[in-house]
Write a structure and sequence with these properties.
By secondary structure, this protein is of the alpha+beta class. The protein is built from 17 helices and 39 strands. The strands form 9 sheets. The protein has an 8-stranded antiparallel sheet with strand order 14-13-10-11-12-15-22-20, sandwiched between helices. It has an 8-stranded antiparallel β-barrel with strand order 24-25-26-27-28-29-30-31.
Length: 669
């Protein structure tokens, strides 16, 4: 076994590897960028090395700096995690040349699967079924269009060199092909340094089912069953589960055998995942092989009782696999959801900023949380916006789904937009409960999964008022004790007023609308005049800072997080933002002119489709912004004429900066 390993990654996977290595008695070295100097993985490791500036291309993607950090620290091996350099054959080769073990597959295996086109040719020769499409070397637009027409529409354009939904476009008609090809190539080049693509027939309602494989240097190879990863947004997974619901033992065995054949065909060693599309008729087709550990590996660990990171370390050290195929079995059911800093209501746009409040469910034999952040950490524009992976296990799928619903209600994030409410809506959806899964799940159920945010209910307003009033009382009591006369009536918070009624008015802004609540002081609490009527409330702030409330005889708990004038009320798995109205802030002008389009997040301008003076129709693409490794197209909200373009291609913009000014076209009389 190794004495010391370096983890060439960040976030939750770096933390996971460090913890596993510690259990095995292996010392660890973390690497970090300037943005990650205070990151959790840095504090967990035995030692840490700075490798560059915040952008990944200047730190985590610079192979020479990572290799030098390993040499300087005396590390025996490098664990690449996933993403970054984990599937970079050049980096694996450089490790070998330096005498450092790369904890991953052989260089030849990475190269074989690094090109999706080459991979499909190898799999075809190995007898693994493929989706019809085009995987050839000729990448001229003319040849690709001919291949697209021959394959038929709808079809999928995919980056040949990568995954994660980057460089991927669904094309439903010949008219869309050229623009989609340009976008896919541009995104692929930015993410992987390779703009080659392949084409595949687009299956309308397939399931995404993948098989975890593992091989050692002695020629042993096993599969650890399957995972269903069908629920995706923008071709990226957000919910994964194991085993895949509804698979017969016969189909499971056939898919497992195909995955092992795929691994053997390229002389694989280590952890890998063979991904398939599963059609409704039971046909399955090879999609790609990821030559690394997958983000969703915990669900496999939960149902098999195996530690796949420990397996990686042992196999890389030359040991044989810990189990034979016949020794592996499935116990219970596990589901993982990815908690992201993103706004589902805005097409899952990433959100950046500080994690002002972060509370995660309590871990147990049934609940696991893999995270690389703590309360107070910053979600940066430079990296993937994942906050945590929440994994639940129980004896069968129905109980696991119920448990998932329960623990999602306990997960709290304030400071950035988060997808927790969306995940809860998925977990509560009848189609999810009945395992009606396919890659179109989110789009098909969009109306139920993306409900409009309504005005604050009387219950939310009551909780906000009660929390404010109780905290003001506490502050007044503290001030009284610190004063020279703690018994002065001027410190009284029970509603005493000179020659006046005992009430207090609280003013909020809720979604741009003013809301007024009057709180009348009563011996038993406060009588609130709310939009829906009066409500008697009382309560206390507990030792954890949570609000324990009694709302007209109904008891409940809530967390209220205050930042400046903003109050975030978290209760029963839902959150609502209110602003405590401050007249001093009303003078500030926050209005945005109708003809301005601003950046929804920090990013880089990678394409400008229009010029000053161009007339555009509603929905026309104007500017493409790249942020967090994905492209986001800014479109015209209405017809008009482009008046000004403040930024050119390559410019870095901040959230809220003006990207384009155009004159709105008046409707004809």
């Amino acid at each position: 076994m190794f004495d010391k390993i370096l983890i060439a990654n960040r976030g939750e996977i770096a933390c996971r590897v460090i913890r596993t290595a510690r259990r095995l008695g292996i010392a660890t070295v973390a690497v970090f960028s300037e943005a990650d100097a205070e990151a959790l993985h840095v504090s967990l490791a035995d030692e840490a090395r700075l490798i560059g500036a915040a952008p990944a291309r200047e730190s985590y993607l610079v192979a020479e700096r990572i290799l030098q950090a390993a040499l300087d620290s005396g590390a025996d091996a490098i664990h690449p995690g996933y993403g970054f350099l984990s599937e970079n054959a050049g980096f694996a080769a450089a490790c070998a040349a330096a005498g450092i073990v790369f904890i991953g597959p052989p260089v030849a295996a990475i190269e074989a699967m690094g090109s999706k086109s080459a991979a499909k040719q190898i799999m075809s020769a190995a007898g693994v079924p493929l989706v019809p499409g085009y995987h050839e070397a000729d990448q001229t637009p003319e040849r690709l269009r001919l291949a697209a027409d021959a394959t038929g529409y709808p079809l999928l354009i995919k980056a040949s060199a990568g995954g994660g939904g980057k460089g991927m476009r669904v094309v439903r008609s010949p008219e869309e092909f050229s623009a989609a090809l340009q976008g896919a190539r541009r995104e692929a080049a930015a993410a992987f340094g390779d703009d080659r693509v392949l084409l595949e027939k687009y299956l309308e309602r397939p399931r995404h089912v993948e098989i975890q494989v593992f091989a050692d240097t002695q020629g042993n190879c096993v599969h650890l069953f399957e995972r269903d990863c069908s629920i995706q947004r923008r071709h990226q997974k957000v919910v994964e589960e194991a085993p895949a619901p509804g698979l017969s033992e016969e189909l499971r065995a056939r898919m497992g055998a195909a995955a092992v054949a795929a691994a053997r065909a390229i002389g694989y060693v280590g952890a890998g995942t063979v991904e398939f599309l599963l059609d409704a008729d039971g046909s399955f087709y090879f999609m790609e092989m990821n030559t690394r550990l997958q983000v969703e590996h915990p669900v496999t660990e939960m149902i098999t009782g195996q530690d796949l990171v420990a397996w990686q370390l042992r196999v890389a050290a030359g040991e044989s696999l810990p189990c034979r195929q016949e020794e592996l079995g499935i116990s219970g059911h596990a589901i993982e959801v990815r908690v992201y800093a993103e706004d589902p209501a805005r097409d899952f746009l990433p959100s950046i900023g500080p994690l002002r409040h972060l509370r995660q469910p309590q871990e147990s034999a049934h609940v696991r949380v893999d995270t690389g952040v703590r309360q107070g950490d910053e979600v940066s524009m430079h990296y993937d916006p994942m906050i945590a992976k929440l994994i639940v296990w129980d004896h069968d799928r129905s109980r696991t789904v119920r448990r998932l619903q329960q623990v999602l209600a306990e997960f709290q994030v304030v400071g950035v937009a988060a997808n927790i409410g969306f995940l809860a809506a998925v977990a509560a959806h009848p189609a999810f409960a009945s395992a009606q899964l396919d890659t179109g799940f989110i789009e098909r159920h969009r109306a139920e999964l993306f409900p409009e945010v309504g005005a604050a209910s009387d219950r939310i307003l009551a909780l906000a008022c009660l929390d404010l009033l109780l905290r003001r009382t506490g502050e007044a009591e503290d001030a009284a004790q610190a004063s020279g006369d703690p018994y002065s009536p001027w410190h009284n918070t029970g509603g005493w007023q000179l020659n006046s009624d005992n009430y207090h008015r609280l003013d909020f802004i809720d979604g741009g609308e003013a809301v007024e609540v009057t709180a009348h002081f009563r011996a038993e609490g406060y009588l609130l005049d709310l939009p829906g009527g009066s409500l008697l409330v009382s309560g206390c702030i507990d030792e954890d800072g949570d609000l324990c409330a009694d709302l007209d005889g109904r008891r409940c708990r809530a967390t209220v997080v205050r930042h400046g004038q903003e109050l975030t009320i978290l209760s029963d798995g839902h959150s609502h933002l209110l602003t405590v109205e401050d007249p001093a802030l009303l003078a500030e002008d926050h209005e945005v002119a109708a003809g301005r389009l601003t950046a929804p997040m920090p990013g880089k301008i990678v394409a400008v489709m229009v010029a000053a003076g161009d007339r555009v129709e509603r929905g026309a693409p104007l500017v493409v912004l790249e942020a967090m490794k994905m492209e986001h197209t800014i479109t015209a909200p209405t017809a008009g004429v482009v008046a000004r373009l403040p930024f050119a291609v390559g410019a870095i913009v901040s959230e809220g900066e003006e990207l384009l000014v155009f004159e709105v076209e008046e409707a004809a009389e």
